[in-house]
Amino acid sequence: MRLLRQMKQSHLAELMGVDQATVSRWERGILDLSESQWISARRLLMGPFEPAQDAALKRLVESSTRKVHLVCDLTHRLLAASAPRQAEWRTGLSEFLGKSLRVYASPEILAADTALNDLGWYDGQLSSLEVNTGPNSDADLVILPGRMLWERLMLADGAPARLVTTIA
User: Are 161 and 79 in contact (CB under 8 A)?
Assistant: First the structure.
């Protein structure tokens, strides 16, 4: 299924939270997947594959009049951001695209992110969460105090994404 999706072992490894050698051992039958890994792999590799939907989602985020951005839910890499969100930042979008935003997170965001596993976020028990945040101390990517809505989405390649919208 991975080959049909034209997905590299390293990408599946990133999505599964393991290293590439582990994926290789699974595929060669040297190592068995745990029950939870099997469920995750099936979800990642057997879902619908519609790259056009990802392009449409990116356009919607970029054209939104709200403060919104889209990140990879596992790595926190920035995938897209609206103009109002970019207006809060003192450095251009190109400096952040494809890079993890986790290093810019406020203590409140880090605490909320850490609690996601216990809340069932990664098991599909929770698909959205409101988060209170305080300011961060970074001069380039400014985070203001407020309230955010996190929504979990799946991208065409099976990667989980997080849509972050300022709501107050």
Answer: yes
The Cα–Cα gap between 103 and 151 comes to 20
CA distance 133 to 34: 36
Tell me the residue type at 25: R
* pLDDT by 10s per residue, the chain, length 168: 777 666 788 888 988 999 999 999 998 889 999 988 988 888 777 766 567 778 889 999 999 999 999 999 989 999 999 999 999 999 999 999 999 999 999 999 999 999 999 998 987 788 899 999 999 999 999 999 999 999 998 887 778 899 999 998
* 132 Cβ neighbours under 8 A, 6+ residues apart: 108, 146, 147
CA distance linking residue 127 with residue 149, whole number of Å: 10
